[in-house]
Amino acid sequence: MRALALEPILPWPKDSRRVVGRTPPPLPSEAGWSSHTVRRLEEPLAKVAALLISISQNNTYEGRDPAQVPDALSSGFVADLLGVDVETLASLLIDLRHRGLIEPGDDHTLRLKDLDGLQQLVN
After folding, report:
1. Would you say the pTM of this structure is higher than 0.90?
2. Going along the chain, which residue ranges are E strands?
C-alpha cells in the first residue's frame, strides 16, 4: 500500500477576506461608491443591466463578441442570482427589449443593442 503524499496547507494571504480577524471592507465613500449607485442596484432592472454589462465585459476580455450573450445560464439560475423570480426576470427582459436595449439573437442568444443605455440604467 502506497502512502499518500499530503499537500501542505497554505495560509490565506494576509489581504484575503477569508482571514480571521480581517479588517472590515472599505466604506462606500472610500471605494468611490455613492448612495445613488447603491440604491439603483437594489432596483431589479438595474441589476439585470449590470449583469448584462458584466457578461459583455467578460466576453470582451475573452475575445468574444461583447454584444452577444450566449444562452449558457438558465433563467432560474439568473433569477436566483438577481434575487427575483423567473416571471419577474422575463418581464424585466421584455422591458429592456421595449426600450431598444436588447433583442433576441441567433441560436438562442441575446444581443445587446445599446451598452451605453444599459450603463445608464446602472448609474
Report:
1. no
2. 68-69, 102-104, 110-112
